[in-house]
């Protein structure tokens, strides 16, 4: 059975036609507050998204603004979000609405330790040097 992608009972096509006022009523208070108090960086990002849509550009939008709340008009777009070292690519779906961009790009990765080197531990002095 195929997964039904929706946000609060609305499908992707319904969300695309949704006005911002009615979308704000569907959000939690924290995200609603972030959008209403939008900072200069967030406004610049919204303007950049609007310009990309007008041009019809398929290039991903690069941003450092991890706290930007995902809006319904961004569904289907590709973003490259900075994780502190490099840009990670994400494609926005309807399931991602009402979340921040940074929630989908991890800043740390799993540490995989290798074997200890020579004289790294007390027991290694009894091992033969390679």
For the sheet with most strands, the description reads:
3 strands, mixed
Beta-strand content estimate = 5-15%
**Structural class, from helix and strand content?**
alpha+beta
CATH superfamily: Ribosomal protein S19/S15
Tell me what the CATH architecture is.
Answer: 2-Layer Sandwich
- Mean of the pLDDT scores? 84
Radius of gyration: 22 Å
CATH topology: 30s Ribosomal Protein S19, Chain A
Outline the structure in words:
- The chain is an alpha+beta fold and 130 residues long.
- The chain has a single domain, classed as 2-Layer Sandwich (30s Ribosomal Protein S19, Chain A), CATH 3.30.860.10.
- It has four helices and three strands; from the N terminus they run ααααβββ.
- The protein has a three-stranded mixed sheet with strand order 1-2-3, covered by helices on one side.
- The protein starts with 11 loop residues before the first helix and ends in a 39-residue tail after the last strand.
- The mean pLDDT is 84.
Summarize the helices and strands and which ones pair or pack.
Blueprint: H1 12-16, H2 20-26, H3 29-36, H4 40-55, E1 61-63, E2 78-82, E3 87-91
Parallel strand pairs: 1-2
Antiparallel strand pairs: 2-3
Features:
about 30% helix, 30s Ribosomal Protein S19, Chain A, elongated, alpha+beta, three-stranded mixed sheet, 4 helices, about 130 residues
Q: What's this entry about, in short?
A:
This protein has 130 residues and is α+β, with helices and mostly antiparallel strands. It has a single domain, classed as 30s Ribosomal Protein S19, Chain A (2-Layer Sandwich), CATH 3.30.860. It contains 4 helices and 3 strands; from the N terminus they run H-H-H-H-E-E-E.
């Amino acid at each position: 059975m195929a997964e039904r992608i929706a946000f609060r009972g609305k499908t992707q096509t319904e969300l695309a036609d949704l006005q911002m006022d009615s979308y704000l009523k569907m959000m939690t208070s924290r995200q609603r507050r972030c959008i209403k108090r939008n900072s200069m960086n967030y406004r610049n990002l919204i303007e950049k998204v609007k310009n990309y849509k007008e041009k019809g550009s398929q290039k991903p939008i690069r941003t450092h603004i991890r706290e930007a709340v995902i809006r319904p008009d961004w569904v289907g777009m590709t973003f490259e979000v900075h994780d502190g070292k490099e840009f990670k690519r994400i494609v926005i779906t309807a399931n991602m609405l009402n979340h921040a961009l940074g929630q989908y790009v991890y800043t740390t990765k799993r540490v995989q330790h290798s074997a200890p080197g020579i004289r790294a531990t007390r027991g290694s002095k009894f091992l033969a040097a390679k």
